[in-house]
Amino acid sequence: MKNITVLAGGVGGARFVRGLLSRLAAAYPADTPSGSSVAVTVVANTGDDMWLNGLRVCPDLDTLMYTLGGGIAEEQGWGRAGESRRTSAEIAAYGRGWDWFTLGDLDLATHIVRSELLREGATLSQATEFLCRRWRPGARLLPMSDQPVETHVKLAAAADEHAAGDLVHFEEWWVRYRAGVPAAGFVQVGLDSATAAPGVVEAILEADAVIVPPSNPVVSVGTILAVPGIGEAVRATAAPVVGVSPIIGGAAVRGMADACLAAIGVPATAAGVGFHYGARNRGGLLDGWLVDTADADAVPQLEEAGIRAAAVPLWMTDVPATTAMAAAALELVPAPAPS
Ligand code: GDP
Ligand code: CA
């Protein structure tokens, strides 16, 4: 085992990768910055990105960077530890921006530096690499694309100044409305002209294992897979593709992923999401799918559908629990021996 590639959203993806790095450091110890001889590449969803107050904000990349770099507000799951909100309050006093989307003072520095680099002509990949020199996340962090691809939600009902049928930015639906306004669907604005960022397709094709962590299947993993070339690479790679269920006992563990699944007609169950990704040997993506022990009933159905499955505890309550989950994911479908 030399290379592992993970397709990640924000909080669920970041916590899983932290456990994965801890597992690899224990199983494949080496004198490298990550503590392991296995290189991890994280392909991050950038569908939640936006320009806000003149700054490029990349919520999932930053959650990954802060979580893996030791700067995350742990309980909250996103944003910086020890954060304050003085600048946001000042911006709100001017009546600018989104008063329901707070940018913390420390976090703003990241957005300012990123925006400066982008304005100087850097790509998002280059800006991300630059920011990671400070945070040293222990994994290579790649945006899914260097072109802007922004998820918008088609509202199925009116809300405030929006009529039914309007498209709003994903963050407005998610943060302002807490996904409480029914969604008729999701549109990735910019997808048609987007390409996978440099290194992404190679990282998937050359991996010894590809992992789909317990990230939102629709607006995190689904968006990554929709980028031209990425879904195709996941289907084509010789590496086993193993996923971890973000749904336990019929509910999203945190957040409102069930509202996203409802919008695309996928049952919010561990098996439902596994079938949504589908079995690789039947045109889908997955060789293996881990479900929680509460969903052990789904294992025989998944296996019958051609997906190797196992039930293990999937609550990422702390790093040791998440390390054990990562170990189970790596063991579910072992990588083929090198030829
Ligand atoms: P986001 O971009 O911050 O929303 O994060 P992700 O897309 O990476 O992951 C969000 C999903 O992670 C949520 O919808 C949950 O279903 C899932 N999740 C969060 N915590 C846990 C956990 O402890 N265990 C499992 N299995 N899933 C989790
Ligand atoms: Ca996200």
Automatic annotation (TrEMBL):
GO MF assignments: LPPG:FO 2-phospho-L-lactate transferase activity
Family annotation (Pfam families): CofD
Superkingdom of the source species: Bacteria
Secretion signal span: none
Alphabetic keyword roster: Magnesium, Transferase
This enzyme's EC code(s): 2.7.8.28
Enzyme class per UniProt: transferase
The protein, known as: 2-phospho-L-lactate transferase
